Amino acid sequence: MRIRATVAAVSGALALSAFVAPSAQAAPVAPVADLDLPMKDTQRGDTKITKVVVNGGKDLVVGTTAKKKFTVAVTATDPKGVAGAGGFLWHGTKLKEGYVDGVLAPAAEEKCAHANATTATCTFTITVNPKASLENNGLRNHLAGGSWNLYAAAGGKDDDYVVKATLKSGIRLKRAAKLTVNASPEPVKKGKTITVAGALTRANWDTKKYAGYTQQPVKLQFKKKGASAYSTVKTVKSDRKGNLKTTVKASADGTFRYVFAGTSTTPAVTSTGDFVDVR
Fold it and tell me: Per residue in 61-84, pLDDT tens?
């Protein structure tokens, strides 16, 4: 099997749809056996994959409309020189039909930078489209949080090749979050009650809308006028619609904000500050 044929098959979105579990898609697809791809680690000759870096090692945060691009860099070596390398990300329990519930594939061939005669780093770009179907690099809520696997293949100029089917990508895909704050009344007399409201919402990849993130602890913080840092006043839990509401006593001019620490499926987010004039 030549590496170029392997990379071409790896990069084909139509072929990759065969991996996705039938329960996660609308129409049946060809069986995995029809693909010209090894389903497990495979080695021929002395080609080696020495390093992989996905999105710079950082989690990828995706909203409901905007496409997000990230890169995958595969470093390989071969005594005769590296011909190319490629791959795709997959999510599931194992690389087998019915067990994979998400695939993210590159739309174009990789670009290789040769460090020397035997080593090259091949980089390809994957575009995530939250509005697309699973077969076209789309997302659904069940794909958030869990670590994605990387299928990587590399080949030498002498037609040796190596396949690593279950490399750990080291990243998570997370549902983008928004956080608001509104302190009132403004202005307020010293000693009176200030109501601090807000809302914690996050992207719903199933409905393509933002919805309340419920029953989550969120810190209310305050920075006195002239101070350099915020301090935590209390922790508030979002209600069943994602709304936040609490009260504090007015003591001095300053700014309130809400801070959410994040979860495995949702990134940390901080609201803008809302200044209150205390008289």
Answer: 999 999 999 999 999 999 999 999
How many C-beta atoms lie closer than 10 Å to residue 141's C-beta? 14
Question: Are domains 3-174 and 177-276 of this chain identical in fold?
Answer: no
Question: By the 8 A CB rule, do 197 and 218 touch?
Answer: no
Distance from C-alpha of 181 to C-alpha of 70, rounded to nearest angstrom: 32
CB 171 within 8 A of CB 91: no
d(CA 3, CA 152): 11
Q: Which CATH superfamily is domain 177-276 in?
A: SOR catalytic domain (2.60.40.730)
Every domain of the chain and the residues it spans: 3-174, 177-276
Average pLDDT, the chain: 87
* Burial of 34 per CB tally in 10 Å (0-12, 13-18, 19+): exposed
Query: According to the CATH classification, is domain 3-174 in 2.70.50?
Result: yes
139, two tokens: 């997302």
End-to-end CA distance of the chain: 78
Q: 272, exposed or middle or buried, with CB in 10 Å at 0-12, 13-18, 19+?
A: exposed
Sign of CA pseudo-dihedral 202, 204, 209, 213: negative
Pairing of strands 119-128, 147-156: unpaired
Residue 135 gets the label, from left (phi > 0), alpha (psi -120 to 50) or beta, of alpha
Cα distance between residue 128 and residue 62, in whole Å: 8
Quick check: 90 and 102 in contact, CB under 8 A?
yes
pLDDT in tens, 216-234: 999 999 999 999 999 999 9
